[in-house]
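Pipeline run #58 for the internal structure catalog. This entry was flagged by the ingest filter as a single-chain record with no existing model, so it goes straight to prediction. Upstream metadata was stripped on purpose; only the residue string is passed forward. Reviewer on rotation: M.T. Logging verbosity set to normal.
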Amino acid sequence: MVVKSKVRKWGKWEAKENSFARGGQGLVYRVRDTSCMHSGVFVLKELLNPKRNERFSNEIKAITSLTEHPHVIDIIDYGAYKDPDKPTYVMPEADNNLESYINDEAVKLSVIECLSLFQKIVSGVEHLHNNKIIHRDIKPDNVLMFSGEPKISDFGLCLIGDMPRVTETQEAVGPRYYMAPELEDGFFLDVDFNADIYSLGKILYFLLSGGKVFSREKYKLRHWSLSEIKGDRRYEIFNLVFQKTIVENRHQRLTCNELINEISEVRKKYLNHPITTLENKIPQVHTSYDGTIQQLSTLDESEWNELLKIRKINNSKHSESIISVAFDAITKKTAESFLYELNRCHEEINREKMSILASKLIMFHSEIAFLNEAALRNLIYLAVKHECSMGVNAAAKIFNLKDPEILSMIASRVDELESESLEHLLMLSASCSYPDRIEMLLWALNHEHSKISKGFIVAGLMHEGSDEAIDRVAEIFREVKSIEEEECSELFQGIALSSKAHSNIKKLIERGGYNYDVGYSLEILSELSDKVSDVDKK
């Protein structure tokens, strides 16, 4: 046997069903207007507990005192139709509240959509504040949704201007998890608009987290950090807002207007973040961890770094398209990220491509100085082996390069070196021994290079110390006609630079045939060298 619900009436409003919800102050019914003035289904709220009459009336007064606002609920009708102790009011029926809306699996809001929704909620609260109303009960349950648009509702706990408080002292009022700290024990009487700002900060977290709630200021903790929960560093941007809303000191909180502006700023930061711009250019990046050659060719340095981080985190497979465009994409700012990528996938990259990429990478060797000696050596070796002169020129500029095999490989291609690279190689050769060093030094001596200092050549030959090397240094000094010649000081500096000058300078003097001043200067240099050597022995 089916029991029919009793038809209930409140003036022109009629409900054919029992109440479908029970709020903090009353029963809620779906009603229709029997006068046909208003079409459709509405919601009627009837006070349940007469002891709450003053608070219920306060709610009606608050809503009806406001001018219309797109994000604040409207009251269609109100009155005490049956019993003066049971007043009612009628409002449009919502699709659901914010909590149900966010937890609906069919609703998938992007971060930008969440921010847009939040700004609308804040604008509704701002409208209340501009009319001297403190809501005190901002929470997802009290934000009603109409076709995806929010409206602030349930003004039962609000404070209006200078009206006396309805809440008794020591009665804590407000939403659990969303209540401002100063309201928690009910003793704090100087309630202001900042209490709503704290709740709004919690609403923002609720939206961005997809429905998570917490007490107090825990958003800073790792377990509650949005960037950790979402696995996305961009969410750190929103901590700037939380620091000015979800904060115990109410005087550090923003106003609604400031909060709206702050959201606009963090929205720009989010949209301009390289992960966001990367997603715009490669929509499938978080599933394929890759892109087409055409897509990859549009990435800037920051976007490349983000893509390569994503690939590293997900240990993604070798990408032929990335290797195809990597040469042009390797820069000072991306060198480190590309090095990780190439090391991670090196087994799938053929040696020819690896060598050319190594040639580009070592141009930025200072950016990848974290490499251990073996890894750096392998990278340099690959670069120098490649037929392109870029790699050998870059390798020659590495300041602390001391590997004899690699130095010999560079020396064998000395004719491909640019002036700056040759200068570096000569500087290295002043103190490092390696096969074919003397041939390289003699080649450099016999070829004119405007930026090359003969001092480094002399240092290298003196360090070599062979008869051939000393003979060649002697020839250089015999060509000096006067101690005043500009080049002369460089030659003497070259001798001083050589760590083996003490043992070889006497051989040089024995060769003879120098200008008197030059010979005399060599004698003085030899005496000084002896004194330094004696001090070192002591």
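catalog note: Residues 168-172 have pLDDT under 50 and may be disordered.
catalog note: The CA atoms of residues 91 and 261 lie 31 Å apart.
status: ready for reviewer M.T.
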